[in-house]
Amino acid sequence: MYREIHRYRGGEVDLARWPATIPAVAQILADGLDLGPGVTVLAGENGVGKSTVVELIAEACGLNPQGGSAKARFQTRGSEPGIGEHLWAERGPGYPAWAYFLRADTMHSLYTYLEENPGRQPERFHELSHGEGFLEILRTRINQAGFYLMDEPDAPLSFVSSLSLVALLHDLAAAGGQLIVATHSPVVAAVPGARILELGDWGIRPVSWDQLELVASWRQFLDQPQSFFRYLLDESTS
User: Fold this and answer.
1) CATH architecture of 2-209
2) pTM
């Protein structure tokens, strides 16, 4: 299990340049990030640094920041934070034997790597639908107690499949797994027992599920969708 991600003493990070200019990353560089046991959910609007935080954790923990296991060797266009070498992933007791990074925006390249890597059992991810491919990765790679990073694993999943993902996350945590999940889904954020961190202009703060802005927004939309569209659509053309 990982206890904390923090900056090396004297680590040379340019605080005036991306990604250090993202409030959440700046907070990690200054104060570290307590990972904690079980499930940690990272929530927040687009652009607040959820994916960047997950990627720098991957770098610090020795995982391929583009996704897969520690042994995965593939890369599309490099866009990661690149500051992992200046961060220290402090380990605690029960260090996991298996770790995996599920990153939604690089799954197509991961599928190709898994299908074409010689010596592996044949797999046909590209013949599956988008959602089926994600579910197959969950079934075959996220299936034992270990350390898992997930960046928007709900992206291609239906409501019912998202509920199945919540059950999987809960069961893995109960078995001793450690999971960090970035999501826009109020369903995934509702994993029982999860610690929720909300990212924004303030940096990173712990909140309850009921306090999440995304939960409030979804409740308002489902209750009165037309109140949102009134300001977004030109009613004269509807």
Assistant:
1) 3-Layer(aba) Sandwich (3.40)
2) 0.89
